[in-house]
Amino acid sequence: MLSDLEAFLLRLATERAVLVTVGATRGSVPRETGAWMAVFAGAVGGSVGTIGGGHLEWDAMRHAREALGPGAAERPAVWSQAVTLGPSLGQCCGGALVLHFEAVDASCREALRQRLTQGHAPLALFGGGHVGRALVQALAPLPFEVTWIDSRDEVFPQDLPIGVRTEYSEPVQLAVRDLAPRSIVLIMSFSHAEDLDIVAACLQRQRLRGDLGFVGLIGSQTKWATFRSRLRQRGFSEGELARITCPIGLPGIRGKAPAVIAASVVAQLLLACEATADARMTS
Are 147 and 115 contacting, i.e. CB atoms less than 8 angstroms apart? Predict the structure, then answer.
């Protein structure tokens, strides 16, 4: 299944579109700043993505399709519209926002790819197994830039979503050194020995640079108790070990199917990202 961005860029190779992006917002609105929708000329299946809001979106689609119709060459390529959400739109949110409209075509694809993935959180996923694959699919439509790492180069599938790159690393823990600052790290390799070395490398980087974000390890409480003992023997303190989350996933979700684990972990990451953003706003 294609992500919205993949579907948009694929269609844009052969069809013109208008990109509608949420700009400044005030009060209660359906989507956040940066949310987008691409509108194509066709009425059936003619849009990708969403700016939310029912009538708000329908009205934006109408304006976009008008810009793609007869006389499009005489219309401006970029324009904006201020919208107040109230009775006139059949909505009671009470907020206000600005919508930006931009006519785009195949020549814009690479620039759009970079722009629409800008600001995505870097995430390092160690492990190409079943849960790793499920996580890659679950993360694809979300604002994460995924580096998928394994010591077995042959485990990665050919069809990767946009925003995912693979990296072969042997030994695998060496990849920790070159992760982007503020990276989220998820550890679920095929080997407990590799998992332990990756966790130790993350702790060492945190000790030296303190620039990693959420670090999560798949496994049970028993696995983590064993790891804690071995990591203490390697010289890491209880305070340092407290920065590792194990088991990963939201408490109370006990399903062990890869897709269930992936959904639980992604929800946990979104909560962690929200908490980090709130902390930065108040600091």
Answer: no
pTM exceeds 0.85, yes or no: no
For residue 274, the domain's CATH number is 3.40.50.720
Which residues form the domain of 175?
119-282
What 3-state class would DSSP assign to 197? Answer: helix
Give the pairing type, strands 47-49 and 36-40: antiparallel
- Report the half-sphere exposure of 205 (CA within 13 A, side-chain side): 24
Residues in the chain, how many? 283
In the chain, the percentage of residues whose pLDDT exceeds 90 is: 71
> pLDDT class for 243, splitting at 50, 70, 90?
very high
Instruction: Quote the number of domains for the chain.
Output: 2
Q: Kindly provide the b/e burial profile for residues 24-60, where b requires at least 16 CB atoms within 10 angstroms of the residue's own CB.
A: ebeeebbbeeebbbbbbeeeeebbbbebebeebbebb
Q: Looking at the structure, tell me whether residues 221 and 241 fall in a common domain.
A: yes
CA distance linking residue 58 with residue 14, whole number of Å = 24
In this structure, the strands spanning 164-168 and 184-187 are unpaired
Q: How many Å apart are CA 82 and CA 96, to the nearest integer?
A: 7
